Amino acid sequence: MSQHVISVKVENKFGVLARVAGLFSARGYNIDSLAVSETELPDVSVMTIVVSGDDRIIEQVKKQLNKLIDIIKVTDHNQENAVQREIVLAKLNATPTKRNEIYQLAQIFGARIVGVTNKAIILEMVSDPETVDNFIELLRPYSIKELIRTGRVSILKE
Amino acid sequence: MKITGAQIIIESLIREKVEVMFGYPGGVVIPIFHHLFNAPFKFILSRHEQGAIHAADGYARATGKPGVVIATSGPGATNLVTGIATANMDSIPLVIFTGQVSTEVIGNDAFQEADVTGITRPITKHNYLVKDINELAKIIKEAFYIATTGRPGPVLIDVPVNISNAETEFHYPETVHLRSYKPVIHGHSGQIQKACKLIEQSKRPVVYAGGGVISSNASDELRTFIKKTGIPITTTLLGLGAYPENDKLSLKMLGMHGTYYANHAVHQSDLLIAVGARFDDRVTGKISEFIPHAKVIHIDIDPSSVSKNVAVDVPIVGDAKHVLTEINKTVKAPKIDEWVTHVMKMKEENPLTYKDSDVTIKPQYVIEKIYEISNGDAIICTEVGQNQMWASQFFDYTQPRTFISSGGLGTMGFGFPASIGAQLGRPDKRVIDIAGDGSIQMNIQELIVAVQHRLPIIIAILNNGFLGMVRQWQQLFYNKRYSYTCINFQPDFVKLAQAYGAEGIRIEKKADVVPAIQKAFTITDKPIILDFHVDREENVYPMIPAGKSVKDMMMRELA
User: How far is CA B526 from CA A48, B110, B236, B370, B529, in A?
Assistant: First the structure.
């Protein structure tokens, strides 16, 4: 089992996401993360799919993806050949006395403070998936109230 | 001039040169049926939607043309599901129209609503929900193109009733442009050269041909290839007829119930040349022991079939007909006299056989007699189970599109409706459905369709009062515990035939087998049920149990 990042260019039409997702779910595979958006061409969407699975079966899924009529291109992305980003939003229980520590941590990671109330503080951070993981680990002592991260987006370097 | 969506469907089918359509009406397709009533092509009204789609499938398999089906929304469409999955597994081109509730109520649990594109997504090559009348003609054009090109398959078009009623100008596109769908036809020339070299250097080659040879109409090219190279050839169930089985180099079928000599030749081979076949588990058995010594050349139009189950040394993605044509131009015969002699010796010493009886009718005997009396010149449809395996073993298929059977999905109840489609597509041929007493009851309601259209289909029921194949497994692997496989509480098939206006003959003595078949062949204006009461516990042999290898092959009954 290893993690795969598959970027799929598809026709921007209804039903395509269900076709793509179906190929994974039919094999009992859980999609770890998924991001879908339009591209520079309004009739083309791109899906960045992060999925863990047996290499041979993922290879088969990619061939099956290529067979779908609405799929234009399937590419493998990794940390070497692509720039990958995720956004995380974290809401922390933060009384005014704790805030300074949190500000410092945010500064180290280049995170932004996007909301503050008397009880809570919301941080936003954009980075590669590993840095996002590290950031979240370091936030844990500060009692995370709620945390959400986007699916990964990935673009080939060349 | 503006015409309605319903009219666009009929006009498009005319332009696709559709000769026959199969289906069943219902609420939301009334607008389409309104115009079907005076369409210039034949419409065959089934008695169950499943019957309609299997008939369309049988028509497609027998003729090579796409089968066309229509059913209503909800239950009409869900009744098609088994037939769609059957066609999808065996790569059969179908274009299926289903009605859908009006676009403004989709998703509101309207009467007879089901998410048909959702339900059929994994069992179609592609499907469409039409949401704009101006897209309809283009979608139909694409559907026929997608269904019939590349690796063929079923394409479904879900047509909401308000789209059928809406009006627009009709322009049927001349061409299809799909940027994301471009099937590879011609094989890579470098790969073809590599393959030729491997073939020439091989010492123990075997050809393994599948349904892809039939669907690409590559039988002639395959025959030329075998003639040029002298390599022994085995086929899959769906490949039966791709190469004449009465030829010396034919090893007949391989796999679970394949011949001793086909399975052993493949196992011993040093080069396996797979053409339009997909290394299905019923063929390979235990993968690791399937071809321990062989390199593999795999010719297939579907890249996802290549190296799916078995690692391939020389993949050639392309249409079997084109690729074989190219190979035939350059390939030289390998020096394999010794190997061929060895394989022929295995063939001679281990023929398909059964223990005949003077008392009971052996099912294999019935198939042999059908073969003899028909001179092998018939289209054989089968149901699924023992009947299917005996029909594949004891009849020599010599022409493509003469063996019609649900291979991948193994759909009981397929054979009889498929024989209706086959007979409509090939009125010049005698069509025979080899059935079991279990399978035939799954779509028996279609008998009235065969009577109505005066189709002289011979339905040979190998009646053993059992769901025979499951019973065989229960006998061999489950301690003879015949749990719910005994079905000897059954209808009187002769009276049933008569009730429908067909002919029915019950055969209980061996001596009556030949006269009954001969009589059936004299009847040309209605279907005939031949109810053969055969040996109840006859088994299909040889047999490689599921997941086992050639060394576990059971040749006959253990005493």
Answer: 59, 42, 32, 18, 10
